[in-house]
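W.,

You were right to be curious about this one. When I first looked at the sequence I had no strong expectations either way, so I just let the prediction run and decided to look at it fresh. Below is the sequence, 409 residues in total, followed by the output.
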Amino acid sequence: MDTVNPLTTPLTTSSRRGFLRAAAMIGAAAAATRIFGEPELAHAERLKMPPYVEGAIYINANENPLGPSQAARRAAADAIALGGRYRMELAEQLEALFAAQNGLNPDYVMAYPGSSQPLHYSVLAFCSPQRPLVIANPGYEAGSMAAKACGAPVFQVPLAKDYSHDVRAMCEASPHAGALYICTPNNPTGTVTRRHQLEHALQHKPQGSILIIDEAYLHFCDEPSALDMVAAGKDVVVLRTFSKLYGMAGLRLGFAAARPDLLEKIFMQGGWTMSPVTAVAAGMASLQDAELVPRRRRELATLRAEVFDWLTRKGYPFVPSVSNCFMLDAQRPTAEVIHAMQQRGVVIGRAWPAWPTHVRITIGTAEEMRRFQTAYEQVMATKSLSKVEPLPQRPSDAPFKPPKYRVQG
């Protein structure tokens, strides 16, 4: 049998993905940037992440309190024995399964440890000092951190009156935009940008720009996916994660889906993208459970409706959501409300400067939401809350100091 030299053999479609991963392992250059997620964004706002306290409830980071499904837990436990090997082919099997379920060619899918990495790398790949990033406000800010890292301007466009992304304004924000980032359902509002709006954005976006469509929360609603735009070869990158409905935030697994030429540009910004074998195994089990998404969607919708009914009866204003989070208008300075709730053992989520009296609430378990209701009613009944220094904006040129996490046990 002839020996094949991988360094001289022409690159075929079937070998492209393996070659890219191997190239990163042997030293392919990659742009360095800090990857921001929920904990890092909270710290960047100088809002200290509270240490874990036994008995407190945490509805601040859009985590799923249910965790991975039982099948996913068993699969992850069984995969621990494989942890001594890289086993990169397992990620390719996961990609092939996801592709088959969504009508994609496997070459259009790449697995990552979560969706934060491909979001950051997409911004680095398509934005520059001459090619701005356009985002919604309020919206998920992580991509703007990557834009600052590469010197790309960031245009923040207020949400439309119905809380969807104002895609017309986003398309007109900069004629030289490198990427338009649309998270639907949106983080933090949990509101959707409809399919016809995405199509408008695709048709009217600046020439040469890319749509980055973040579907982290899509499983919680009935809206159609934009993956068919990927299958059609459009200028679209779709991001998916297992952190939300699948309850795998701590395991780290997600996808970027796009044309192969776009995936290559994203890949070369960050290098090797291997996900932990335990996460891959849990992801495979989750995708193969046909009842998992509809079951958890129904359960979440029931809890969300109960909370919204209670808020409505009490006269507490909020933004209706179809996701696992919503924006609550406390009609008071956000920092004071967050502090007052923490004093009552209920940790609620971050603030957005565009809405200074709103705070994001994650839907937890039934018991957690009952405790939230009790604590929030007490806070709202308190005429004068403890004064807390407002949350300042982190200067774009300020050095980032990583948060210190308390190890439990």
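Here's what jumped out at me. Residues 12 and 258 are 18 Å apart (CA to CA). And, maybe more interesting for your project: The radius of gyration is 21 Å.

Coffee later to discuss?

I.
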